[in-house]
Predict the 3D structure of the following.
Amino acid sequence: MNTIPTTALGLAERGLPVLPLRADKRPLGNCRACDDLACGGRPNMATPGSCICPWPCHGWAAATTDPTVLASPQWTAAWRRARAIGYHPGGAGVTVVDLDNPAAVAWAQENLSSTATVATTRGEHWIYRGTMRSVNGVRDGVDIKSLMSYARWLGPGTGTLVELPDTVRALAEKTPVRPAPRAVTVPAPAGGGECRHRSPAYLERGIAMAEQRITEAAGAVHHTVYRTFLAVLSAHGRCGCLTEAHIGRLFTAAQAKGESPRHCTDAWSNARTTLGM
C-alpha cells in the first residue's frame, strides 16, 4: 500500500509545504501538461504556490499546505504516482544544509552549530530555523536548500532545531566563482502571438526558474539544457516578450554547468525546430 499520499497530507496539515517527487527525486507534474516540466515551471505570481495551470504542478513553487489544493483530484492523482515526498524549506521557515558524503558530515560536525539532523542515503540533512538563498556546491558535498528550492522529506530526524547561524549564511558568499562564460548571441523570437503573461514579474520568474533548473542539474546536463530551452520557448517564444538578454541568462547558466557555446546554440536551434518556430 502506498502510504506517501497519507503522509504528505499529514505533513501539509501540520504546516509543511509538500510536493510529489519521482523515484529519482525529481518533481512530479501534478497535471499532464506539466509532466517533465513541459510548461517551463512558470508559477502564477497572483497565487504563490502554483503555475499558470489551475492547480500547482511541480517544483518548489508547487509545494503547498492549501486544503483546497490538497483535496483536488489533480493533487490526489499526482500523489498516487509519487515515490517520495518533497518539501519547500523556505516555505516552512527553515534552511537545510545537505551533506552528501561522510567527509561533508565530518566537516559540519567540526564547523557548524549542532541542530536537528536527518539521515540520508549518503550523508545527513542539518536543518536550521530561518531562511536564506539556496546555493549548491558551497563546498565539496555541501548544498544549501532554503528559498526557491526543495528537499526530500526523510522523517523528523533527531535533535533540536536551532537558529540559522552566520556560519551557514557565509557559505553562500564563498561559493567558488566559475570562469566567465563566453557571450553567445542568438536572435530572440519575433513573436506576434497572444501574450499570456500577467506581469513582467511573471516572465522574470519563469526565466529565473529555468536558470535554477539548469544550475541544479545533477546529471544529464545536455538533456536538461535542451528540455529547459524547449520549455522556455514553448511558454514565452511566440509573443515577443522573450529578449536576447533573457536568452543570454539561460546560455550563461548552461555554460556554467560545462556546456559549450556551440552546444547552447544547437540546443536552442533544435528546440525552436521542434516547436516549429
Summary: The first strand starts at residue 18 and ends at 21. Residues 200-215 form the longest helix (16 residues). The beta strands are 18-21, 84-87, 94-99, 116-119, 124-129, 135-139, 142-145, 151-152, 162-163.
